[in-house]
Design brief:
This protein is an alpha+beta fold. It contains seven helices and twelve strands. Strand 6 (about 135-140) and strand 7 (about 145-150) form a beta hairpin.
Length: about 325
Amino acid sequence: MQRAGRRGKQAREGSPMENGGGQEPGTPEPPAAEGTAAPRPPRPRPRLVFHTQLAHGSPTGRIEGFTNVKELYAKIAEVFDISPTEILFCTLNTHKVDMQKLLGGQIGLEDFIFAHVRGETKEVEVTKTEDALGLTITDNGAGYAFIKRIKEGSIINRLQTVCVGDSIEAINDHTIVGCRHYEVARMLRELPQAQPFTLRLVQPKKAFDMIGQRMRISKSTGEGRVTTGKETLRLRAQGPATLEEGPSPFEEEAARRVDDLLESYMGIRDSELASAMVEAAKESPGAAQLARALDSVLGEFAFPQEFVAEVWAAVCHPRVGQE
């Protein structure tokens, strides 16, 4: 993370004409006019240091200087002398495979980061007897899609070897490493019924006190979000990370509703994507404008019109009478 650029650099290095009518280089700048406040120096950026451990057990490490998820994984990998590709996902403030504590696009400044690394590989044969498998998919932002939810009573629910937190490495020997979660969800939806297929899964490495757990997470208003109410580090897919205030209660509730819609329409959950859609909806006077805004930045998702209309209603209609 770099400090803001030096003020006045362009003025000092410009030509005499650019410097305001022939002022010689090196001449001191004239004092500010009387009554004009002198410019304040830029606020120094705080040094952000986070503590981290491997979820199955390790000493505590310290990391800093990352601006996105891939760099975060690289920093953790460097501390523990492993490859970044060993990290499946991270949770905040718990070593358990808890999807309510999944690291998304924001990290509270006091959060403790636990990295879940590759454990055993397993293969399971699945036969699609209905359209939906009962899986909700998310990804770690660095090439791995994994299971975030298993619906009770679903096809996958009846397969005891498949667990929340398992990374999907291949479908019918076709590797999906590097695919986004929505691409994996689409592949699974398009598989024909009554024809068996094989999933190759990688489960997170577990400590002894975690062996045997099979988690199914119910819906939660705080799922996938950091809700400390304090400043957070906002990680972005493009551009530098920024230090921001935590989301407001309205924004959190709106993002939860949009995340629920993502799951019902697409079989994915993604708190960072939901938050981005909330921001776009807040700036759109109607569903048609929101559709154009989403298409310009998230066109690869190919959101259906009825989904966009529900997103706009979920975000904007509750605001009526609350201004």
